[in-house]
C-alpha cells in the first residue's frame, strides 16, 4: 500500500467550515476574513460562486476556509438540504464557523444545524452577523439561546468585530491534527463465501485448526450462534455463519436458493469477505455474481483461488486469461493462491484480510484530498461541455468502510471523468482490497 504519510508533501492546514442558512452573510464574511474580493457576492440568494475553499491566515496562523453556501436549495426540502450540506462540511472540518443573521433571529433551519453540530463534537464559533452598529448588539446576545456558547457580534459588511471573531476561530482550531478515534469494538467480522464445493469448509478447518477461541474469553463480544471466533496470526476474527459452511448442504433442488440467501446474509454482516474460487475449474457466472454482491455491498474483498494443488501450468495460464477477461473489475481486490488441502499459502490469508481491512477503513484528510484534487484538476481538466468547463471545486471523504468520497462540482461531471478520478485516487492512496465510492454534488 502507498504510505499515506508521504503520499504528498503539501502541508496539512486545519479546515474551518463556514455553515449557515443562505443569505446570512457567509460569503461576505469569507471575503472579510481572506481580505480579498475573491468570492463573488451578489444580492441574489444562492447565487453561483466559483470557489469553495480559500486559504486564510490571521496572526501568522494559516487555515482553510470552506464556504458551504452557494448550493441553491430547492424551496421544498430546503432545511433538509442545508442540513445535509452542513453535515458533510462539518464532518470534513476541524472547526466550524456557524453564521446566523442577528437581524432576523434564529430559525428552524438553524436549530437543525445546531443538532448536527452538537452530535459532531467539533469546536464551534458562533458568529452573529449583520450587527452593523452598537445598537444591534443586543440582538446578537439573544443568540446565546442556541446553546453554542458566546455569540460573536460581527458585521461582515463593515468589518466590525471581525478581529475578535478571528481570535476565537484560531482558539477553536485544535493544536494537533485530528486523529480518528477507534471506537472500542469486538473482533472484525469476516465471511467466507463462494459457490458449493470450492473448499470453504476445508479452508475454515485449515485456518481454525487448533485455534478455536472460547467466546467468553473475548471481552465485549456478542457472537451469533452461527458464528465462530477464530484466531489467525494472533488476531481474533469473528467468522460469520460458519455453521452454514460446516453443515454440508446436500445438493438438492431448493438448497441452492437457501445457500444463496445465506451467502447474501453473510456478506451483509461482514466487513471483509473472502470469496473462495476453485482455481482448477473455469471461473463461472456464479463466482462473478458473488464477487459483484460483495462489491455492491461495499465490503472489503479477498479472492482466494483455492485447489492450487490441482492446477498445472496450462490451467494457470488459462486462469490468468480468465482473470484478465472476467475479473478485471475486481483488480483492486487482495488475492491469495492457496490449497486448503495441502496448506499451501494459507498463511497468506491473514495478511490479505488485514490489508483489505486497512484499505476499507482508510481515511484521507480533507487537506490531503484537496491537495490531490487540485493537482488532478490542473493536470487533467474536465473536457469542455457546451462551452462550459465543469470543475471539481472541493472534495471530502464522507465515510470510511468503504471509503466514500463526495465531490462538489460546478457543472455536470462526465461519468468517465468520475472513473478517472477514482482510478487516480487508487493510484495515490492505495485502497487495496476495498471498493471505493465517489459521489458527485453538482451545481449548475
Ligand atoms: P450567504 O448566502 O450566507 O453567503 O450570504 P451573502 O454573503 O451572499 O450575503 C447575503 C446578503 O447579506 C448580501 O446582500 C450581503 O451584502 C448582506 N450582508 C452580508 N453581511 C452583512 C452585514 O454584516 N451587514 C449587512 N447589513 N448586510 C450584510
Ligand atoms: P465447500 O462446499 O465450499 O465448503 O467445499 P469443501 O470444503 O466441502 O470442499 C469440497 C471438496 O473439495 C472436498 O472434497 C474437499 O476435500 C476438496 N477440496 C477443498 N479444498 C481443496 C484443495 O485445496 N485441493 C484439493 N485437491 N481439494 C480440495
From TrEMBL:
GTP 2 binds at residues 194-201, 241-245, 306-309. InterPro entries: AAA+_ATPase, G_ENGA, GTP-bd, GTPase_Der, KH_dom-like, KH_dom-like_a/b, P-loop_NTPase, Small_GTP-bd. The keyword Nucleotide-binding applies. GTP 1 binds at residues 20-27, 67-71, 129-132. Residues 14-177, 188-361 form the EngA-type G domain. Keywords: GTP-binding, Nucleotide-binding, Repeat, Ribosome biogenesis. NCBIfam families: GTPase_EngA, PRK03003.1, small_GTP. Belongs to the TRAFAC class TrmE-Era-EngA-EngB-Septin-like GTPase superfamily. EngA (Der) GTPase family. PANTHER family: GTPASE DER. GTPase that plays an essential role in the late steps of ribosome biogenesis. Associates with the 50S ribosomal subunit. This is GTPase Der. It comes from Microlunatus capsulatus.
Amino acid at each position: 500500500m502507498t504510505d499515506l504519510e508521504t503520499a504528498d508533501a503539501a502541508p496539512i492546514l486545519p479546515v474551518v467550515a463556514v455553515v449557515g442558512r443562505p443569505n446570512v452573510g457567509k460569503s461576505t464574511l469569507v471575503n472579510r476574513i481572506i481580505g480579498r474580493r475573491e468570492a463573488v457576492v451578489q444580492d441574489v440568494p444562492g447565487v453561483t460562486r466559483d470557489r469553495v475553499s480559500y486559504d486564510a491566515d490571521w496572526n501568522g496562523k494559516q487555515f482553510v476556509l470552506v464556504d458551504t453556501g452557494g448550493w441553491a436549495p430547492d424551496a421544498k426540502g430546503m432545511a433538509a438540504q442545508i442540513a445535509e450540506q452542513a453535515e458533510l462540511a462539518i464532518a470534513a472540518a476541524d472547526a466550524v464557523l456557524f453564521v446566523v443573521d442577528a437581524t432576523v433571529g434564529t430559525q428552524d433551519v438553524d436549530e437543525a444545524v445546531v443538532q448536527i453540530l452538537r452530535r459532531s463534537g467539533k469546536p464551534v464559533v458562533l458568529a452573529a452577523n449583520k450587527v452593523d452598529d452598537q445598537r444591534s448588539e443586543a440582538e446578537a446576545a439573544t443568540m446565546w439561546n442556541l446553546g453554542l456558547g458566546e455569540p460573536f457580534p460581527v458585521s461582515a459588511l463593515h468589518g466590525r468585530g471581525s478581529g475578535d471573531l478571528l481570535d476565537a476561530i484560531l482558539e477553536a482550531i485544535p493544536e494537533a491534527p485530528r486523529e480518528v478515534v477507534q471506537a472500542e469494538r469486538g473482533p472484525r467480522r469476516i465471511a467466507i463465501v463462494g459457490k458449493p464445493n470450492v473448499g470453504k469448509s476445508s479452508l475454515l478447518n485449515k485456518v481454525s485448526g487448533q485455534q478455536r477461541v472460547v467466546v467468553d474469553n473475548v471481552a465485549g463480544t456478542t457472537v451469533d450462534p452461527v458464528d465462530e471466533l477464530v484466531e489467525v496470526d494472533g488476531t481474533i476474527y469473528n467468522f460469520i455463519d460458519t455453521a452454514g459452511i460446516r453443515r454440508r448442504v446436500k445438493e438438492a433442488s431448493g438448497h441452492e436458493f437457501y445457500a444463496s440467501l445465506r451467502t447474501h446474509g453473510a456478506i451483509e454482516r461482514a466487513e471483509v469477505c473472502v470469496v473462495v474460487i476453485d482455481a482448477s475449474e473455469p471461473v463461472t457466472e456464479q463466482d462473478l455474481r458473488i464477487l459483484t454482491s460483495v462489491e455492491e455491498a461495499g465490503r472489503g474483498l479477498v479472492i482466494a483461488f483455492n485447489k492450487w494443488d490441482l492446477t498445472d501450468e496450462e490451467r494457470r495460464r488459462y486462469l490468468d486469461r480468465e482473470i484478465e477477461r472476467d475479473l478485471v473489475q475486481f483488480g483492486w481486490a487482495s488475492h491469495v493462491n492457496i490449497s486448503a488441502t495441502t496448506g499451501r499459502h494459507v498463511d497468506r490469508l491473514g495478511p490479505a484480510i488485514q490489508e483489505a481491512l486497512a484499505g476499507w477503513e482508510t481515511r484521507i484528510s480533507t487537506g490531503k484530498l484537496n491537495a490531490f484534487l487540485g493537482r488532478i484538476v490542473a493536470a487533467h481538466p474536465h473536457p469542455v461541455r457546451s462551452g462550459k468547463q465543469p470543475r471539481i471545486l472541493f472534495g471530502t471523504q464522507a465515510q470510511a468502510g468503504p471509503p466514500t468520497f463526495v465531490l462538489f462540482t460546478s457543472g455536470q461531471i462526465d461519468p468517465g471523468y468520475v472513473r478517472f478520478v477514482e482510478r487516480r485516487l487508487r493510484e495515490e492512496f492505495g485502497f487495496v482490497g476495498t471498493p471505493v465510492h465517489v459521489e458527485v454534488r453538482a451545481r449548475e
